[in-house]
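Rather than argue in generalities, we reproduce a single protein record, letters for residues, whole numbers for local backbone shapes, just as it appears below:
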Amino acid sequence: MPNQSYKRILLKLSGEALQGDREYGIDPSFCDYVAKEIAGLVKAKIEVVIVLGGGNIFRGLSAEKQGMKRVTGDYLGMLATIMNSLALGSALTNLGVENRVQSALDMPKVCEPYIRNRALRHLEKGRVVIVGAGSGHPYFSTDTASAVRACELDCEAVLKATKVDGVYTADPVKFPDAKKIEKLSYLDVINNEYKVMDSTAITLCKDNNIPIIVFALKKKDNILKVCRGEKIGTIIT
């Protein structure tokens, strides 16, 4: 039997999601693949908010280790998420999918400012809303920004698309005997330090009763199947 289906979701994509098989930057062909997956959601009348990371272009924490100030590194990371957001927005537009890129940092010549009521109006009109620049504040990850936007925009679930098909007891790449976990509580994730999202994001979802589903991005139609309530990946409730 299927689990609960969702009509408005927040899709969290890492920057690496647009990297494809490249070592750096954006792979246009894989960006198109992601856009087609999202187009399937729109066709199914599912309202979609997207938050992207920027790790394929710049990582603030890595820069800090090399001597850059954390605040500067975080702002550079936010700009990287805008680049990814614009690339995905362009790919969606090429497919005829209406979308709006909004930013937590004001850059009116590039995209709209993030305004909650405007974002909600876009969703009601069937447009995909892509929110870049994280939360607009240093020291907060794009995971936390995802949880914040999910709460603000009344999303029913946070869908985290990753390289693996769920949460495992250990890194399945390094440990072939690692076991997949189909269901976890928020406290399980925090107490066992599973590398799903940071603790601030998990706590926000817990306090607002928003489930998190972790699943593989590269399996075709996975996002749509999750939205329809099929048992895919790991659900955190």
